[in-house]
Design goal:
The chain is mostly helical and 117 residues long. The chain is flat.
């Protein structure tokens, strides 16, 4: 389970490298020898290696008495960890939206008031 939860962010990282290599390089960016082709090749190799590591972590040990149960536990606990992380993220986004609406309403109420001397 630990291998899967550790390796999943790398899939996003390598995917982002492929996507970011599409744009024109900026003047202040470091140049990579080989250019876009090298970045994409390294990212694809990284994605394949990470996917293979995740797949191999699902294979139970040879001396495991119940192989299906072992694989089910790994998959189930990984789903539980990812679901918990998604719930924390969703809750944070909901809280952020609520705070943003509150601060916008307070700003609007302050802008509508005038002081007279």
């Amino acid at each position: 389970m630990m291998v899967i939860t550790t390796m999943l962010p790398f899939l996003g990282l390598f995917g982002a490298a492929i996507r970011l290599s599409r744009g024109a390089p900026g003047a202040d960016e470091a140049r990579i020898p080989g250019g876009r082709v090298t970045v994409r090749a390294c990212a694809v190799i990284g994605i394949l290696t990470t996917t293979l590591a995740i797949a191999l972590s699902l294979v139970p040990r040879a001396d495991e008495p119940d192989k299906l149960l072992a694989a089910s536990k790994v998959i189930g606990l990984t789903a539980l960890v990812l679901g918990g992380g998604g719930a924390v993220y969703w809750n944070g986004m909901r809280r952020r939206a609520r705070l943003s609406r509150t601060s916008t309403a307070e700003t609007a109420s302050w802008e509508g008031t005038t002081t007279s001397v």
